[in-house]
Amino acid sequence: MDKLLYSRLKNQKDNPVRLGRIQYMNVAPVYYDLDIKNYLNIEIIVAPPSALNQMLALEQLDISSVSSAAYARNHHKWQLLPDLSISSCGPVMSVKIVSRYLLENLNKKKIILTSESETAVDLLKLLLAPKNINPKFQQKSISSPQCIKKEDSAALLIGDIALKYPWEKIFPHVYDLGELWTEKTGLPFIFGVWAVRKKFASEYPEKVQELIKKINHSKEKGLANIKDISRMASQKLDINIDICHEYYQRLNFDLTERHIKGMTYFFSGLYEKGMIDTPVEITTTNG
After folding, report:
1. Tell me: the pLDDT tens digits for 63-108?
2. Do residues 143 and 221 both lie within one domain?
3. Which of 48, 155, 165, 281 could pair with 112 as two cysteines, CB 3.0-4.6 Å apart?
4. Helices 49-57 and 118-128 meet at what angle, rounded to 10?
5. What is the bridge-based pairing of β-strands 95-99 and 78-88?
6. Dmax of the chain from CA atoms?
7. What is the pTM for the complete model shown?
8. Are residues 12 and 64 in the same domain?
9. Phi-psi region of 134 (alpha: psi -120 to 50; beta: other; left: phi over 0)
């Protein structure tokens, strides 16, 4: 073998796994032990969900937490890691519509959308469609209540910003999208998953299996230390500690058959409404 090619392949094999991490507090339990151990063979890249979705698609990451809607659009290139999700069965607290009007009165009204998550935007559109509610959507970054102007009828909030402010005291109507989904379907909603590029999993199966074990061990450690994680999140983000603790209690990080059923229902809805091009075949690294 050519020495230069051998050297390049050896370096690739020795390179740390590039692991994406959503910048919100919701994934803190999963990365709890990884943060403490700071493994040399894992490089953690932190970014909003939309950025991680794009980076994994561009092969700038090997494995990442991504929006479930992004997986639907890349299922032919990605596989899910087993036993991992960001989900809720009922209120999730961190994905909300704040509105000056009742939900059914938002037809042709302006709704501000976040550019940070495909899943939340797709879920909102899917929930509104059967009600024949067709708002005017506009993308804008929201970092505080002041970002939502009087002419904005409603806004979609995701992540830490949804938890930080008392939105129920600021807007007359606040809707939790996780709660709306479960009321409609009786199923959990999967906001995020962990995915690996199929090409990377094929080339480095040992690396992938090793990282899966470390991530699941880290999740177990994190779930056993939720009070500590809640305290750290509260101090870092200036969010009431009781809200942080309730939030983590509501989140679920598993990927059971029931989660897969909920995700399949979501993906089927996206396909039926023409929001994705092909039906989704869900696959995981363990088959």
Report:
1. 999 999 999 999 999 999 999 999 999 999 999 999 999 999 999 9
2. no
3. 155
4. 110
5. unpaired
6. 69
7. 0.91
8. yes
9. beta
- Tokens encoding 100: 């000056």
d(CA 128, CA 56): 30
> Which amino acid is located at 112 in the chain?
I
| pLDDT per position as a tens digit, 166-225 | 999 999 999 999 999 999 999 999 999 999 999 999 999 999 999 999 999 999 999 999
Length of the chain as a residue count: 287
Provide the 10 A C-beta neighbour count for residue 237: 14
20 and 135 co-located in one domain: no
Residue 47 pairs in a beta bridge with 22
| Contact between 152 and 65 (Cβ < 8 Å) | no
Quick one: tokens of 177? Answer: 């999208």
Checking if the pLDDT of 236 tops 50, the result is yes
Domain match, 124 and 141 both: yes
